[in-house]
Protein: Heme utilization protein
Organism: Bradyrhizobium zhengyangense
Amino acid sequence: MNGFRKGLFATIIAIAFPLAQADAAGSTFDGTWNVRISSSSETCGNGATVAIGISNGQIASSSTAVTASGRVADAGSINVSLSTGIKHAVGSGRLSGTSGSGTWRGAMCSGTWTAERM
């Protein structure tokens, strides 16, 4: 029975330790981020700026005009979905410290984005 308890304890620690690290790393990017969305196409518009919030690695809107959702991984890779009215876009990229960048695409448009922690 003693060997069983040690094995069970080791298994619990092996499972719990990575989860604790993931929570700590996910919170590294917590806060409000100012995201500038750009497109090379004039018909798609250019220069929109959106504020998003990140809490425990989860992305949420900081604006009533735009709905944001998604996740930031431990190492900073980000996947996000933005919608306003009938328009919808998805983006991906990387955050690092106080900045980030990536690409986005919608139904008929695409482009790049940059972010700064506020």
